Each structure stands twice: as structure tokens, then as C-alpha cells.
Amino acid sequence: MPPSPPAPPRAPCGWSTDGPAGAPRPAHAGSRRGSIDRRQRLPPNRASLPHPLPPRGAFVTSTSVDTAPPAVDRTSFGILAALSTCHLLNDVMQSLVAALYPVLKANYALDFGQIGLLAFVFSGTASLFQPLVGLYTDRHPQPYSLAVGMGFSLTGLILLANAGSYAFLLLAAALVGFGSAVFHPESSRMARMASGGRHGLAQSLFQVGGNAGTALGPIAAAFVILPRGQQSVAWFAVLALAAMVILTKVGGWYAERRAAQASRPAPAKPTMLPRRRVIAAIGVLSLLIFSKYVYMTSLSSYYTFYAMHRFGVSVRDSQLMLFVFLGALAVGTLLGGPIGDRFGRKVVIWGSILGTLPFTLALPYAGLTGTIVLTAIIGVVMASAFSAILVYAQELVPGKVGMISGLFFGFAFGMGGIGAAVLGQIADAKGIDYVYWLCSFLPLIGLLTIFLPDVEKPRARPA
Question: Which residues, 6+ apart, have CB-to-CB distance to 380 below 8 Å?
Fold first, then answer.
């Protein structure tokens, strides 16, 4: 009888011997999805498996399936509803600042340049502080910071109602802006934690509350503040108190959820993209945010003046036209996240920026009805971009949800503020009609989407 062949060399625990010539190799080597071969015995503690350190000069991305949320996690719609409701209340208070521009212009004899500066202080405060707040809370999460942020907004509203000079208007705008800076990064993190893996849907539900609040601001100004005067702004401080109560409850849930997650094994290391590609992608996303928010600022800050100048409508009717546009933003925001979850973030980014170009080019030449229809279409299509951009960026730089959220929310606010100031000066020099002709070309920046890397897992085609 011929001798039996020698047994293959015994592999260490967690290693496979199915490589060439029976040489032992890690069980995950050659795996297309980076997961451990389930046929092999695993060590008692999965977290004890060695993971290679990322190469020097590389960022990690969340494209690995090992970073997917556990199957037991489910979407917490109650928490998302609470966050969305508070986002609505927060942005109603914020939008009152912009909706009050015509009233403040008349009461304080302001010119467009001063209106632009007021918008710049409001948006710039939020822009500067949001990334810093996000960076700090990434390292030191603050479950109850959202309620504290609402206190700043409450103080700003009361001061706005009783401002005796333009300087106090600027201070009031800064306080409301700082309240927003505290609110957005940590609430965005909570929305992601409550998503159950449906990150686009969670961000859309969270952000649609903000868009709805922004849309309700002009209605509140038209039916409450215009008939009763600037002092009636103080009534809306009740909204801040209600939000503080809700956010205290949400903060308790957040603290419990973090404690539960701390007891889980650490997730496996995600895959990596080179640092240069990540920086380039963040730069492209920033330019897309620039095009989106400068154009949206041209409507949110100056649409009422444009409507009154071009079509001779009343202040109240111009506020209703602004409400149509802002309501369209809410619809687009709600649609953008689920579409991104289904078809991919880049698909939404392509369509939402570049797809508005035909409508923005037509807007300066449209009549009253056409203007209302076109601004509604622009609002729906353009608003679908932000949740896709934000989730894409979070997946590009995982583990920095607060910083990325603060960076992009802050950059959006900053671009809105700078855009308002610059467009105000242009309107003073060239006229309000010229502003809308100039801004109609901004969606061309959407062509830069071609330079974004593919960081998402392939999606199965529908049957």
C-alpha cells in the first residue's frame, strides 16, 4: 500500500490553508468583501483578530460591509420624528430673521447692503461655530447640548423683537445663528444613530423638518408679525421652550444608546481611500454646496423684493410666493434621501445640481405664473442634494459624523451669508433683475460631480 500523503501544515487559529501549496494565509485574504471565511473556526473574541494599520497618508471610508450597522438595529422613527419636529421649530425661528427683512428695512431705513450684512452675521455665526461644535462633540458627546442651544435662539428672538438699533439687530441675529450652530451637528449625529442603517432616509426626515420650518417662517411673518409689528416676534420664544423640553427627552435616549453601544465589540476596520482623493472629493462637494446655497440664498433673501419690483405684488403676496418656494424645498429634501439610499448618492447629486440648469436659465424671463412654477421646480430638484451630499461625506470620512455634519451645515450657512452680502451689493449696483440673471448659471458647477469617487457598495438591480 502506498504511503499516505503528508498532512498539510497546521494553520494558526483564524488562518486558512487553502492557498497555493497549502501555505497558510489569513482567512480574509482574497475575500472579495473583506469578511472572514465562515468555514474556519473563529477565536472566542472576534475583536482580538489583528487588523492591518492604514497606510500613512490615507483616510478610511465606510465602504466595507464590516461597518454596516448590526442587524438588530432598527430605524427609530420616534426619535427621528422628535428631531425633525425640533428642527422645524428651530428653523421657524431662524427663518423669521430672513422673513423680517422687508419689515426691518422699513423700520430701520436699511439699504440692501445692510440687509446683506445682517444675513451675513446670522449665517456666518452658524458657519464658523458649527464645525467647531461638531469637532468637539465627536470627542466629547454632549447629549443635552441641543436644549442649551435652543436657549441661545430664545434669547436672540426676544432681543430681535425689542432691538433699539441696527447694532442690536446684528447681535440678535448672531445669537440665533449660534443656537443653530449648537443644534445641527449633534442632532445630525443623533439622526444617524437612529437610522438603523437607512442613513439617507434618516437625514431626509431630519432635514425636512428644517425645510418645513423655513417655509413656515414667511407665513408666520405674513399673518402674525406684519399685522402686529416687530414686537410680536417674542411670541415665538414659546417654540424654543417647547423644543427644549423635547430635546431634553431625546438627550436621555442618546445617552442610553451611547452606553449600550459602548458595550458592543469594536467594528472591523473599514477600507481606505488615499488622503488626496478624500481631500479632492471634499473640495468638489464644497463647490457643489457653494452653487446650491448661493442660488438658494438669491431666492430666500431677495425673492420677495424681486417679486415686488418685477410684478408689483404686495408684501403679503410676495411672502406667499416665498412660501411656495420654501415648501418645494421641503418636498425635495424628503425625496432626496430615500432616492439616494435606493439608487446611490452620486445619482442624486448629479440630478439635483445640474438638473436645475434649464429652469434657472428660464427664470429671469418668466412671467408671474411662470416664476411661481419655475421656483417650485427648482426648489424640489435642488433641495434633494443636501442629504445625499451629507451622507456621502459621512461615508467618505467615517467616525467624524459631528465634524462632517458641522462642516457642511456650517459651510452651507456660510455660503448663504456670504452670498446674501455679495448679492445685496450687486443688487444695489446693478439692480435686482441682474442678480437672478447672474445666478442662473450657478448650476453649471454641477458638472464637477464627475470627479467624485465611487465609495458606495454596488446596489442590486430591481427585478
Answer: 328, 329, 331, 332, 335
In a domain, 57, yes or no: no
Cβ(122)–Cβ(97) under 8 Å?
A: yes
Each residue's pLDDT tens digit, 397-448: 777 777 777 777 777 767 777 888 888 889 989 999 999 999 999 999 988 8
pLDDT tens-digit map of 87-145: 899 888 887 887 788 888 888 888 888 888 888 888 778 778 888 888 888 788 778 88
284 near 83, Cβ under 8 Å? no
Distance CA 421, CA 427 (A): 10
- What is the CB neighbour count within 10 angstroms for residue 264? 10
- The one-letter code for the residue type at 16 is S
DSSP 76: -
Give the integer Cα–Cα distance in Å for 56 and 201. Answer: 34
Count of domains for the chain:
1
Instruction: Determine, yes or no, domain membership for 196.
Output: yes
Residue pair 394/405 in contact by the 8 Å Cβ criterion: yes
For residue 18, being part of any structural domain is answered with no
The closest alpha carbon to 117, from 411, 428, 436, belongs to: 428
What is the model's pLDDT at position 30?
A: 46
Check whether 171 has a pLDDT greater than 90. Answer: yes
**String of DSSP letters for 137-153:** HHHS--TTHHHHHHHHH
Domain that holds residue 390: 75-258+275-451
- pTM, two decimals, is 0.62
- How many whole angstroms separate alpha carbon 227 and alpha carbon 216? 16
